[in-house]
TrEMBL record:
First-level EC class: ligase
Gene3D superfamilies documented for this protein: Mur ligase, C-terminal domain, Mur-like, catalytic domain
Reaction(s) the record says it catalyses: (6S)-5,6,7,8-tetrahydrofolyl-(gamma-L-Glu)(n) + L-glutamate + ATP = (6S)-5,6,7,8-tetrahydrofolyl-(gamma-L-Glu)(n+1) + ADP + phosphate + H(+)
Top-level taxon in the UniProt lineage: Bacteria
Family to which this protein belongs: Belongs to the folylpolyglutamate synthase family.
PROSITE patterns cross-referenced by the UniProt entry: FOLYLPOLYGLU_SYNT_1
Classification lineage: Bacteria, Bacillati, Actinomycetota, Actinomycetes, Micrococcales
Recorded GO MF terms: ligase activity
InterPro entries associated with the record: Folylpolyglutamate_synth, Folylpolyglutamate_synth_CS, Mur-like_cat_sf, Mur_ligase_C, Mur_ligase_C_dom_sf, Mur_ligase_cen
Domain Mur ligase C-terminal: 316-439
Sorted UniProt keywords: ATP-binding, Ligase, Magnesium, Metal-binding, Nucleotide-binding
Name the record gives this protein: tetrahydrofolate synthase
Domain called Mur ligase central: residue spans: 58-289
């Protein structure tokens, strides 16, 4: 790999930080604009960089990032130079733009930002003349990612939507393959109050004559995907019929899975991720790669697939960040994700007691998250992340005490103190663990804390 894309280029860190600071001056991700015209105009001025490589486009409610990372890892095992864009980041914004398996370097981040900034400012001026808001943080970041991939260049880009699909900024790209992770209720203020409405918005990423692969969906979501596929003359392959996770066995460091793909059978693959949901994500990723490489008609090469899955990572998803005592972080931030976390803790670990360090953002279903986690929790250490959208710790603690009255609940305004006390609690008896969850911003803060303090 060339020096240009190495993350260890600390002399350019200040340049990258300045670029990121300029991005942060724009309207934040909590208030996305339901429009495509602004992003479309920006990439048009740049010569449509998103058209210079094929794209696998992925949406859904839970599992998008893990599935995206598995797809990228398999494609890279095939020798392709890959681009990957995910959101949000955990510690540094470079994580969102991955080129050939590595976060974009500080130098490339800053240089690409400098290249596109004049064009973004031109679009800002045009929008202002029309009485519209300037390009948002996410719109600008999407343009940056597409430009960085073209500059690399990449052979294929795996692109995760930010929110929804139809009007998400990433939808200025035409995905050759459209991938749907499980669809559930989330972002209801923006996407709709029913699964049908949310699925209809997400189905907007399906482009004419695309290959569409989907996880198993509830009937109302599947109906929307079938409708969109029919209207666009696309093919739709759904988990359970066209492909399936045949088996999953707990193994040291993850699980061993067998998958019936669209075009082949794949047995005894090691997946270094915990949770049955990750096995299903892997089946979806395999179907997506089959559809991309051979339009679903050609089986993947066994040893290449095995390498791709065995080297897949998904930071912040049941990730071990401390061992003395055990501390796991998981980015579950809605009830569907919290249920998957609870199931994985029961199946893949043998803890006697678990302390949940919990922080939730204001636009999330905190009641549903607590209800999902309460059956596996021994005690709650309630806190808040550094986000201005975080539910204040005392208010969240009251909610936890109401929804899980049988559990001890402590509130901490300071995340550092919450984690410190939870670790002390876990150290007082064998087979205790700490699980930090509830929001992605909370996970990012804890991962940074673990690194700075050098947890064992």
């Amino acid at each position: 790999m060339s020096d240009e894309f190495e993350l260890d280029d600390s002399e350019y860190r200040e340049d990258a930080d300045r670029a990121y600071a300029e991005l942060l001056e724009r309207i934040g991700e909590a208030a996305p604009q339901p429009r495509l015209n602004a992003t479309r105009r920006a990439v048009e001025l740049l010569g449509d960089p998103q058209r210079s490589y094929p794209i696998i486009h992925i949406t859904g409610t839970n599992g998008k990032t893990s599935t995206s990372r598995m797809i990228e890892s398999i494609l890279r095992a095939y020798g392709l130079r890959t681009g990957l864009v995910t959101s949000p980041h955990l510690v540094r914004p470079n994580e969102r733009i991955v080129i050939d398996g590595e976060p974009i370097s500080n130098r490339a981040f800053a240089d690409n930002w400098a290249d596109i900034r004049p064009f973004l400012e031109l679009v800002d001026a045009e929008l202002a003349d029309n009485g519209e808001e300037p390009l948002t943080y996410f719109e600008a970041f999407t343009v940056l990612a597409f430009a960085a991939f073209a500059d690399a260049p990449v052979d294929v880009a795996v692109v995760e939507v930010g929110m929804g699909g139809e009007w998400d900024s990433t939808n200025v790209a035409d995905g050759q393959v459209a991938v749907f992770a499980p669809i559930a209720l989330d972002h209801t203020q923006r996407l709709g109050s029913s699964i049908q409405q949310i699925a209809r918005t997400k189905a907007g990423i399906i482009k004419p004559v695309a290959s569409v692969v989907s996880a198993a969906q509830v009937p109302e979501a599947l109906a929307e995907l079938e409708r969109a596929a029919d209207l666009t003359e696309s093919t739709l392959k759904v988990e359970g019929t066209a492909f399936a996770l045949e088996s999953s066995t707990v193994a040291v460091g993850g699980q061993v899975i067998s998958v019936r793909g669209i075009a082949g059978e794949y047995r005894d693959l090691f997946l270094p991720l915990y949770g049955d949901h990750q096995g299903h994500n892997a089946a979806l990723a395999i179907a997506a790669v089959e559809s991309f490489l051979g339009e679903g008609s050609q089986a993947l090469v066994g040893d290449v697939l095995a390498e791709g899955l065995a080297t897949a990572t998904s930071p912040g998803r049941l990730q071990l960040v401390g061992t003395e005592p055990t501390v796991l972080v998981d980015a579950a931030h809605n009830p569907h994700g919290a249920l998957a976390l609870a199931d994985a803790l029961r199946t893949y670990f043998t803890f006697d007691e678990i302390a949940i360090v919990l922080g939730v953002l204001q636009d999330k279903d905190a009641d549903g998250i607590v209800s999902a986690l309460a059956p596996v929790a021994s005690t709650f250490f309630v806190t808040q992340s550094g986000s201005d959208r975080a539910i204040p710790a005392d208010r969240l603690a009251d909610l936890v005490a109401r929804d899980a009255p049988e559990h001890a609940v402590q509130a901490f305004e300071s995340l550092e103190f919450a984690v410190q006390d939870a670790r002390i609690w876990a150290s007082q008896a064998p087979r205790r663990a700490v699980v930090v969850t509830g929001s992605i911003t909370l996970i990012g803060d804890v991962m940074a804390l673990a690194e700075s303090e050098g947890w064992k």
